[in-house]
Amino acid sequence: MPGSSPFPGLQKLSPSVYLWEPPSSHSTATPKHPAPSPPPKLILLFTWMSAQPIHISKYIHNYQTHYPTSRILVIRSSPLDGLYHRTSTQHRRLTPAVHHLLASLQPTTPTNPTPNPPELLIHLFSNGGSLQFSTFLATHRQTTHTPFPPHIKILDSCPGRATFRRTILAFASPFSASPLFIRFPTLLLIYLLLGIYFLAIRLRLLADPVLRVRGILNAVRQGEERRCYIYSTADPMVGWRDVEAHAVEAGERGCRVRRERFGKTGHCAHVREGGGG
């Protein structure tokens, strides 16, 4: 049985997946900031690694405000997803999200053409959310054996490249406010484990997962109508040049690409400067 949810009003479907269903009274609600086109039926938020509920909730609230009639699925990621959990465990955790995706969208058929704009909006946060999305794609393919539905994609602070320094920052950030007696031994353990991990990648004993997902995002574009990269030159965890290089490659491969570069915002924190907070 799913346990309690850390997000008020959201139902926990699995350890990784949370659902917000708009109340029936919202079916005719007028958005606070009306969009020029119909709202998406479903929004998927693939959050950054170890993102805290208080930070994720800000994005949930923004989407609820702009699209009060849209369902929202929050799909969280943790270090254990890529380093410990077996693939079968990850698929089992993401299967409820696939089922709600199928239930929310009308299948595209010759008599039911692709809606314009697409009914699905996907927001990827950082490398952690991108990695979780790649697993979700595999889960969808394994579960449905059908093409991925038409969608618009936002790539927020991603994809970067895996460097030792930036990865240390990503893994250590959840412990920045912890007491010293917790933070110090945790950082030592993080340095040790990531040192071994990067050595294994360098010796080609392990594949680089971030390099793999960079390739997936530009190779597996099934159903994607267009995408937007939002990123910052001040981001300490994901290099803006790495994001722009990926955007250039995407354009060369035929993607419809838009880029929004910020100059002062931190990692996955562009909403305020962009006026969306």
Termini separation comes to 35 Å
Largest sheet: 8 strands, mixed
What kind of assembly state do the chains in view correspond to? single chain
Average pLDDT, all residues: 87
Structural category: alpha/beta
- The spatial strand order of the largest sheet comes to 1-2-4-3-5-6-7-8
Q: H/E element string?
A: EEEHEHHEHEHHHEHE
Strand content: 15-25%
Q: Give the helix tally.
A: 8
**Count of β-strands:** 8
Task: Characterize the overall form.
Answer: globular
Considering the chains and any ligands shown, give keywords for the structure:
277 residues, globular
Summarize the structure.
By secondary structure, this protein is of the alpha/beta class. The protein contains eight helices and eight strands.
Overall description:
Helix 3 packs across helix 4, helix 4 packs across helix 7 (209-219) and helix 5 (164-172) packs antiparallel against helix 6 (180-202). An eight-stranded mixed sheet has the order 1-2-4-3-5-6-7-8, sandwiched between helices. The chain is built from eight helices and eight strands; from the N terminus they run βββαβααβαβαααβαβ. The protein is globular, with a radius of gyration of 19 Å. With 277 residues, the protein is an alpha/beta fold. Strand 5 (120-125), helix 4 (126-144) and strand 6 form a beta-alpha-beta unit.
